[in-house]
Amino acid sequence: METVPNALFIFVKYLNDPQRGIIEAVNFTKDSDTIASLVASAFGALYGSQAFRKEWIMQLPGKLLKHGQDGEVFQLLNCVKTFLTS
After folding, report:
1. Which of these, 21, 17, 23, lies nearest to 8 by C-alpha position?
2. Distances from the Cα of 84 to the Cα of 1, 40, 64, 78, angstroms
3. Using CA atoms, how far apart are residues 23 and 2, in angstroms rounded to an integer?
4. How remote is the C-alpha of 19 from its chain's centroid?
5. What angle, 0 to 180 degrees and rounded to 10, lies between the N-to-C axes of helices 18-26 and 32-47?
6. Is 53 helix (H, G, I), strand (E, B) or coil?
7. pTM for the whole thing?
8. Rounded distance, CA 72 to CA 31, Å?
9. 34-70, pLDDT tens digit by residue?
10. What is the pLDDT of residues 74-83, one digit of tens each?
């Protein structure tokens, strides 16, 4: 009952500062992992990769599954981007 309203509150409060909003969401209250996931997803959808610090992105292996190949997620995102822009 509180997760979505809290995520929306943080998203709107930090609409012009996505990195600060993500940090605030991570350090929020209980269920901060879900709240941060929602907030980061919303900022990513709105701003693209510019919403995230370079060091946050560089540390991601980009695997779809635990034993997947590095970079799979990024390849998938490039396919979606190509499809949407064609």
Report:
1. 21
2. 34, 21, 21, 10
3. 19
4. 10
5. 170
6. coil
7. 0.73
8. 28
9. 999 999 999 998 988 888 888 888 887 888 888 888 8
10. 888 888 888 9
